[in-house]
C-alpha cells in the first residue's frame, strides 16, 4: 500500500477552512497521484472532486453567448434541412441564396440579457432577449414572433411557440463543437434536422 505524501499534506492544509471530509474520500485522496479539489456543497458539507470528475464537470460548461460574434457560413446540414426551412416559411430561392452566403453577427451580453445584431442577405435585424423570459423577435424580413431563450447545460435553446402564426412550434438547440463551429438541431413540428455553421 502506498500513499501520496504531497496529496496528504495538501489536504491537511486546505481542510482547515472546511468541515470534515468523509473518511473514504480521504483514503482515496491519499492514494491518488493528482491532488483533488476541495469544495463545499450548498449544505456546508465538504467534498473532494477528483481529476476524472473535474474533467467530466468541465465538459459541461454553460453555453458561451459571446463566441457568437463574427462572420458565419453554413458548412453542413441534414438531408431534410431544405424541408425544415420550407416549413419555417423560407422559400427555395431564398434557401439557395443562403446556402453560400456569409452572415455577420454581433453579440453583446449583460447578465442574463443579450443582444443579437445579424445581417442576412443585405438586411439587418437587432433583437434583445432575456434568458428564461418570452421576448419579441424581429427577423431580417421584418416578421415578428414570440420566442423564449434558455441555457440548458452546454446548449442555448430557443422555442418559438407559434412560428408561423398557425401554431407551429419550432425548437432550436445550439451547441459549440469548437470555438468556430456551431451546431443547431431543429425540431420543427414533426420534422427534426440539424445544421452546422463555421466562423470564417
Estimate the strand proportion: 35-45%
**Widest sheet: strand ordering:** 6-5-4-3-12-11-10-9-8-7
CATH topology of the largest domain: Lipocalin
Q: What integer is the average pLDDT? A: 80
CATH class of the largest domain: Mainly Beta
What does this entry look like structurally?
- With 200 residues, this protein is α+β, with helices and mostly antiparallel strands.
- The chain folds into two domains: 54 residues, no CATH class; 135 residues, Calycin beta-barrel core domain (Lipocalin).
- The chain has five helices and twelve strands.
- A ten-stranded antiparallel β-sheet has the order 6-5-4-3-12-11-10-9-8-7. Strands 1-2 form a two-stranded antiparallel sheet.
- Helix 1 crosses helix 2.
- It starts with a helix and ends with a strand.
Amino acid at each position: 500500500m502506498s500513499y501520496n505524501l504531497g496529496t496528504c499534506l495538501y489536504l491537511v492544509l486546505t481542510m482547515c477552512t472546511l468541515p470534515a471530509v468523509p473518511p473514504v474520500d480521504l483514503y482515496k485522496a491519499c492514494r491518488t497521484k493528482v491532488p483533488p479539489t476541495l469544495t463545499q456543497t450548498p449544505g456546508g458539507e465538504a467534498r473532494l472532486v477528483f481529476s476524472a470528475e473535474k474533467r467530466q464537470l468541465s465538459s459541461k460548461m454553460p453555453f458561451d453567448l459571446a463566441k457568437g460574434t463574427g462572420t458565419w457560413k453554413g458548412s453542413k446540414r441534414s438531408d431534410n434541412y431544405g424541408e425544415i426551412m420550407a416549413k419555417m416559411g423560407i422559400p427555395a430561392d431564398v434557401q439557395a441564396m443562403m446556402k453560400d452566403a456569409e452572415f455577420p453577427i454581433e453579440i453583446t451580453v449583460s447578465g442574463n440579457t443579450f443582444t443579437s445584431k445579424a445581417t442576412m442577405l443585405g438586411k439587418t435585424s437587432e433583437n434583445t432577449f432575456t434568458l428564461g423570459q418570452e421576448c419579441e423577435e424581429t427577423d431580417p424580413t421584418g416578421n415578428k414572433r414570440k420566442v423564449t431563450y434558455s441555457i440548458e447545460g452546454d446548449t442555448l435553446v430557443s422555442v418559438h411557440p407559434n412560428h408561423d402564426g398557425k401554431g407551429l412550434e419550432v425548437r432550436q438547440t445550439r451547441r459549440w463543437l469548437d470555438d468556430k463551429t456551431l451546431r443547431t438541431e431543429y425540431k420543427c413540428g414533426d420534422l427534426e434536422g440539424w445544421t452546422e455553421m463555421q466562423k470564417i
